[in-house]
Amino acid sequence: MALSAKKAITKVRRRLMDERETNFSESELLDYLSEGQFEVVQHVALTWPEYFLRSSETQLSTQNIADGTANYDLPSGFWMPIHVELTDSDGDTAESTPLSFERSRDEDANGHYYRNDDIYIIPTPDAAVTSGLNIWYVSRPSDLTVSSNLMLGDDFGYAIIAWAVMKAKIRQGEQAGEEADIWKLCEQRARMLGLRVNRGQWNNGPRGRTKQWI
User: What is the pLDDT of residues 16-32, one digit of tens each?
Assistant: First the structure.
């Protein structure tokens, strides 16, 4: 059952001992939960991308590959890449390896990289392929309202709540946990779900923090 923002606010208040709603407004806690949702979704997408291959939150964009064309528009709403597959002119489909821009310059580079609002295929395709480029991705989470549900709330809602509690305590000047504690909560849940860690490396690209092979 999905975790609603309203229920999440109640859980945050209990941990802050603010059931009488005297210290924090509803809108303030919604802001903290929205921030936590953003950070947790990003962390899960970067660290355990396979989670989203089984999630209804994931979207798929399919494009035709053109002969001699390396760059293609990223789909509308694209935020975090999850998985890319390429099909060649023989009909064979394989996972494409994410590359850094620097690695893509190497003669033996084979995969894809992101630059501005485009995805680049390396090496440049030498044949047209219908529906040859498939991109699985996650859109940026919307800010929460009282009537909305938390993204990933079923599996990582506890971490999102912990983020909101941490931010609320910081605002009050109290001793709060650290981000590392929240990532540990995510790791514990990921292990329960049998997720494998993406062994890429952190890069700061044009779309923000990404985890790519170099």
Answer: 999 999 999 999 999 99
